[in-house]
Automatic annotation (TrEMBL):
<feature type="transmembrane region" description="Helical">
    <location>
        <begin position="312"/>
        <end position="330"/>
    </location>
</feature>
<keyword id="KW-0812">Transmembrane</keyword>
<feature type="transmembrane region" description="Helical">
    <location>
        <begin position="283"/>
        <end position="305"/>
    </location>
</feature>
<feature type="transmembrane region" description="Helical">
    <location>
        <begin position="91"/>
        <end position="109"/>
    </location>
</feature>
<feature type="transmembrane region" description="Helical">
    <location>
        <begin position="156"/>
        <end position="179"/>
    </location>
</feature>
<feature type="transmembrane region" description="Helical">
    <location>
        <begin position="61"/>
        <end position="79"/>
    </location>
</feature>
<dbReference type="GO" id="GO:0005886">
    <property type="term" value="C:plasma membrane"/>
</dbReference>
<keyword id="KW-1133">Transmembrane helix</keyword>
<feature type="transmembrane region" description="Helical">
    <location>
        <begin position="336"/>
        <end position="358"/>
    </location>
</feature>
<feature type="transmembrane region" description="Helical">
    <location>
        <begin position="401"/>
        <end position="421"/>
    </location>
</feature>
<feature type="transmembrane region" description="Helical">
    <location>
        <begin position="191"/>
        <end position="209"/>
    </location>
</feature>
<keyword id="KW-0813">Transport</keyword>
<dbReference type="GO" id="GO:0022857">
    <property type="term" value="F:transmembrane transporter activity"/>
</dbReference>
<feature type="transmembrane region" description="Helical">
    <location>
        <begin position="370"/>
        <end position="395"/>
    </location>
</feature>
<dbReference type="InterPro" id="IPR036259">
    <property type="entry name" value="MFS_trans_sf"/>
</dbReference>
<protein>
    <submittedName>
        <fullName>MFS transporter</fullName>
    </submittedName>
</protein>
<dbReference type="InterPro" id="IPR050495">
    <property type="entry name" value="ATG22/LtaA_families"/>
</dbReference>
């Protein structure tokens, strides 16, 4: 019998022949959509939401909760449908257009339009999250299992670079509006930055649409009713998940890891604004995260290939636990800079490694379905982070206790990850299902 290690070594040799054009095109999508993650989810919009629109950090938390729930409900069905029809790229294109259009429209609301902005952010995040589901699923089409940590890490690294580059331009436009022919006062620089996100996202998505090829599916499957088949496959996934016990344990760890990291990303700027840190310091610190994240993510992926993804993931969770505890005591811009640098060291690498590990624990012929299922379940949990932040803030009237509460998610993720046997999980993923 061929062991998992032998199979991975063989696939690694095959992986050396992975189509480089497809890999580059796939990686480039992270460059494209990370503009939304940096400018709208993490940096400019959370501050704009509080200062220009008049919302609160609790309002922002509830907005993130709503987006997470909608994405959770959509993702598994769409993933199952895409696997059956072999059209992950089509769904990727649709959700990309939705997210980019919502980004452009965010330039329209004005002071007091909290509900309108919240609705646009929710729609934008549906586009971002839905597209991300199909993008992740395409990793299995462009990279062999032994190369996925490296390719996945390259994607996140390019995301840091691309998202950071556009964020730097936006920051310069916000700090020096007259250099761009804009009025010194007002919200025009932030509004233009939202339009730039939409254009950037669409423009740099062209390579993945043109060059990435999906594995073909049977013609008979293509002719079936995709919605009905999607529902059937989703129900089948729910029934069969116990057939993959290591995957199930890993998914539980991933849910809490994802929720903790997501909460840090989406709440950091609004938290900093609430405790009195100036907008320029907040955006500059987040820019530091991006540019530290680029080389750190590449290094993280290389180390994960050498010492093991699980070990590196556990270390990153320890770092996040330290970050949120230090965040509780944060008082000035220097502290925020330090924490931003620490986040940059582990954020992209932990997400890339988590994505790569998951790709090896799922059945190779049902990637979009299982990625959709992961998105569904993780989003069902992920609303808890922003919601916990918002509720703790409401009941304690303290954003500091709200950020400290996020430590719960990292502790649980570390505890569950300890019991995951990834080698056994890889064997479970490729064995025939004996229903």
């Amino acid at each position: 019998m061929v062991s998992v290690r032998q199979r991975r070594l063989a696939e690694g040799a095959i992986g050396l022949q992975d189509d480089r054009k497809q890999v580059r095109a796939w990686v480039m999508y992270d460059w494209a959509n990370s503009a939304f993650a940096t400018t709208i989810m993490a940096a400019v919009m959370p501050i704009y939401f509080v200062k220009a629109i008049g919302g609160t950090d609790a309002d922002w938390g509830f907005t993130q909760t709503a987006a997470a729930l909608v994405i959770a409900l959509l993702s598994p069905l769409l993933g199952a449908m895409a696997d059956r029809a072999g059209n992950k790229k089509s769904y990727l294109r649709i959700f990309t257009f939705i997210g980019a259009a919502a980004s452009v429209c965010m330039a329209l609301p004005g002071k007091g339009d909290v509900l309108f902005v919240s609705l646009l952010v929710v729609v934008g995040m549906i586009g971002f999250g839905g597209a991300g589901n199909f993008y992740d699923a395409l990793l299995n089409d462009v990279a062999s299992p032994a190369n996925r940590e490296r390719v996945s890490a390259r994607g996140f690294a390019m995301g840091y670079l691309g998202g950071g580059l556009l964020l730097a331009v936006n920051l310069l436009m916000i700090l020096k509006p007259t250099w761009f022919g804009l009025p010194a006062e007002g919200s025009a620089p932030s509004q233009i930055s939202f339009v730039m996100v939409g254009i950037w996202w669409l423009l740099f998505s062209i390579p993945i649409f043109r060059h990435v090829r999906e594995r073909p599916v049977a013609e008979a499957a293509r002719r079936r009713n995709q919605v009905a088949e999607g529902v059937k496959r989703l129900a089948q996934t729910l029934r069969e998940i116990s057939h993959y016990p290591e995957l199930l344990k890993y998914m539980i760890a991933y849910w809490f890891l994802f929720d903790g990291i997501n909460t840090v990303i989406v709440m950091a700027a609004s938290y900093g604004t609430t405790i009195g840190i100036e907008s320029t310091h907040l955006i500059t610190a987040l820019l530091i995260t991006q540019f530290i994240g680029f080389p750190a993510t590449v290094a993280f992926g290389a180390l994960a290939s050498r010492v093991g993804g699980k070990r590196m993931l556990y270390g990153s969770l320890m770092m996040y636990l330290i970050i949120v505890v230090l965040g509780f005591f944060m008082k000035n811009a220097l502290h925020f800079y330090i924490l931003a640098a620490l986040v940059g060291l582990v954020q992209g690498g932990s997400q890339a490694t988590a994505r790569a590990i998951y790709s090896r624990l799922i059945p190779p012929d049902r990637t979009a379905e299982f990625n959709g299922f992961l998105t569904f379940t993780s989003r069902l949990i992920s609303f808890m982070g922003p919601l916990m932040f918002a509720l703790v803030k409401v009941f304690t009237d303290s954003s500091r206790y709200a950020i400290l509460a996020v430590a719960f998610f990292f502790v649980v993720a570390m505890a569950v990850l300890t019991f995951v046997n990834t080698a056994k999980g890889e064997r479970e993923a490729i064995r025939p299902f004996a229903g």
